[in-house]
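Re: weekly structure request thread

Next one in the queue (277 aa):
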Amino acid sequence: MKSFNFPLLAAVVLLADCGLAGVAILFSNQLNFLTHVMENQTRWKNVLKERVKGLPDVPHGWHMMDALPQENGEAVAEDIVHAIILHHRQVGSFVNHGVVALRMAFSCYTLKNMMYQIYLINELIVRDLDPSKVVIHLANLKPVMVKLWDKAAFTGETSEIFKSVYWEVYRLENEKVPINSNYPKANGNVLTELYDAMLAQVRQHCYRVRPIEFFSQVGVRPNVAVVDDVEKTTVKDGEIAKMVAEHCAYIDEFYTNLKIDTMNLLLWNDILHFQRV
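Done, posted below.
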C-alpha cells in the first residue's frame, strides 16, 4: 500500500498565511486523506468503527442537519466519512468535518490500545513479577510507544499523554540508572494514574467496548478476569504476559500498516536513544 503523507498541520499554517491559496491546499490534502482511508478500509476498519462523542455541529446549520448520520454530536466515524465521500466531497466545510470525525476516532482507538497495554503491564508490576521479565515488555513497548506518539501527531491533537506514558515506561525500565535532568521524574509507579487519565478521556470522547470485545477485536485471546478487580487474582502471570506480548505486537503491526508518513523512526531513535532488547 502506498504511504500517505498527510501535512495537515503544515496546511493549517499555510491557510493562515496564504488566504484562498491556503484554503485550496488544505481542502485538497483533507479530501485526499479521506479518500485514502476509504480506499484502504480493511487497514483502517478498527478506527472507522469508533463511535465518537462531542463532534461539532453539522456544517451550514439546521437545514443541513440530515446531511450526515450524526445526532447530538455523536456518530460512527465510518458513517460520517462515507457520507461525505459519496455526497459532499465538493464542500470544504463537510470535508473538514469528516477529518475532524476521523481524527477523533483515531485518538479514541489509540487511547484504548495504550490504556489496555499499560493496564496489563502494570498488573505484572504490582504482582512483583521478576523485574528482568517485566523489563523485556517495557523495552519492547518503547519503540511501539514512539510509533503511537508519532502517529498521534498526525491527528493534530496534543500528545502529552503519550509523552507521559513513554517517559514513565523509560523510567521504569531504567530505575537503577541515573535519569537525565531533562526527563520527567516520578516516585513510584504512576502507570495507574496514567491509565486513569486515559480512561477519563475515553469516557468523555469515545464509546467504550467491553475489554473482552476489545481484545478479541485486536486478535488477543483474552481472559476477561484480568480486568476484574476480584477475579484477576485467578489469572496466572504467564497468561497476562502473553496478552501483553500479543497486544504489543498487534499495536506495532496495525500502526505500521496505516502507512502514514510522519517523522522517520530512525530520527526518533536518535532523539530518544533507545534500543530494542
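The longest helix spans residues 92-126. Strands lie at 4-5, 51-52, 75-76, 260-261.
Next request, please.
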